[in-house]
Amino acid sequence: MASTILRGGHVVDPLHGPSVPRDIAVRDGRIVVAAPGETFDLDLDARGCTVMAGGIDLHTHIGGGKVNLARALMPEDHRDGSGNPIAPSVDPLRLASCGTCTPGTLATGYRYVEMGYTAAFEPAMVASNARHAHMEMGDVPVLDHGAYVMLGNDELFLQLLAEGGPACSNFAQIRDYIAWTMRATKAMGVKVVNPGGISAFKFNQRKLDVDEPHVRWQVTPRQVVQVLARALRELGVPHPLHIHGSNLGVAGNIASTLQTIDALEGLPAHLTHVQFHAYGNEGPKKFSSAALQLADAVNANPQISIDVGQIVFGQTVTASGDTMRQFAQSALGSPRKWVGADIEATAGCGVVPFRYREASYVNALQWAIGLEIFLLVKNPWQVVLTTDHPNGGPFTSYPHLIRLLMDRSFRDEQLARLHPEVVASCALGSMARELTLDEIAIMTRAAPAKLLGLTDRGRLGPGAAADIAVYRDATDREAMFRTPSWVFKDGTLVAQRGKLTATPVGGTHFVEPGFDSTIETTLRRHWRDHGSVLFDHVAIGCDELCQCNNGGRLLPAACFGATGG
Ligand SMILES: [Zn+2]
Ligand SMILES: [Zn+2]
């Protein structure tokens, strides 16, 4: 592997203090301190460039059943604008895979790397479909990856929660079940989606508020969130509970979002795609921004982190585990089609194509709410930049989103094009904040690394993995972040001025929390009575994971010391 030195770049590395011009030296895939007079295979002049760690997307739907269903549902996404198949291009790497809102696995890796991203995490892995999710992510070139397994709507969890009663007398058993599921599926975290609500929908409940009992199990979303968050804390899983809250997309859902924060009782958690959960019901259209209330809650709770799930105008496809809410939105599908699916009754799945329109009051306000949240939360370490790809828009719009956040006049220009009532009524036009390069580096690499417990990523100090993006400074931040001059993955040059130069296989991040193996007696009985898969075939071993992952490296993250009994 070539050794490299990047000379004189403006290094923006928030974990190591203020940004300064300095050299970055790389040897054997790691960042090192260069010895005086030491020579390197690649000696690059990075003056006039901003140097950051590789980008990390902690919430992007890139692997598993939903993604493939979305691809199958959206053949138009794999054709050019005139409806013809993609014409052969001069770039052979672009031929192999295409698509924008539901790109193929190869296109997913290529497009991320071309923007300077080096890791991406699938947030909604169904436990019984974990092999497929890992295989699909293993087929994505270059990027390191990992996944959060969905819990909180599976029959066994809800049954155990009901049996334990309000005091959760069987908490240790539930905690063991969560740990077992994470190890069996090789997960990096746990995501709860519409806590209890996906299951309730199967019993024909069409909504489930935070303190409303599930009609079958008589447990509430509040209990589900509390027990999952506490268990992850006690297991020492670095990434706290990843929460897709109740009532996604519903006017007035800020009440549910604040109740969910309240339910956590001070435990750490990550609230995902909060733009979709920050709606008031005021004004003539009974749909208003609750960005300020959401931001106030985040500012008052330093143990809470968020990602935004910004919407971007244009065609996309929404893909979610939240069958209840996707069914409710399916009438708005554009084009007019959708898919709902289920596997083993452990979670859910809904795929609805959608076009966000500037002329739509609701869509324009959603756009403004997302940006307001970015600008109102004070501490950038609590915020991660996402579009909830592809739900708010494709990840390829990140450079555009960065410009909106860094350039007020550009933002105001865009705002002026929107539905006039939104422009007049929302607070965005009066917000002067422009995010700095340091803040962008935090929201796109340093904070996600910290929130995931990736100790050698998201930073550029000696010993860190040499995942590096070098951007030529430009006042047009969209152009700057669209096409980095150089991108390195573990020290290998993988892209240069938007052209791929190498496609190494990425690694898999996962955690291995401990548990009492007597839980397997309960699990074996449950799978025998209710499952369609032999229990002994459920867990994915490390050798198998390596095969699933195209031979990529296994990157287990350490759990921290348990904090409770
Ligand atoms: Zn979600
Ligand atoms: Zn999502």
Residue ranges: pLDDT <50 for 5 or more in a row? none
| Percent in strands | 15-25%
User: Helices and strands: which structural class?
Assistant: alpha/beta
Radius of gyration: 23 Å
Please tally the β strands and state the result: 24
Number of helices: 19
> What best-fitting shape do the alpha-carbon axes yield?
globular
Query: Major sheet, described briefly?
Result: 9 strands, mixed
The ligands found in this model are: zinc ion
| Share in helix | 25-40%
Q: Kindly state the mean pLDDT as a whole number? A: 94
How far apart the termini lie comes to: 46 Å
Structure, explained:
With 565 residues, the chain is an alpha/beta fold. The radius of gyration is 23 Å and the shape is globular. It is built from 19 helices and 24 strands. β2 (20-27) and β3 form a beta hairpin. α5 (155-164) runs antiparallel to α6 (171-185) and α10 (291-300) runs parallel beside α12. It is 33% helix and 20% strand. It binds zinc ion (ZN) (2 copies). One zinc ion binds next to loops.
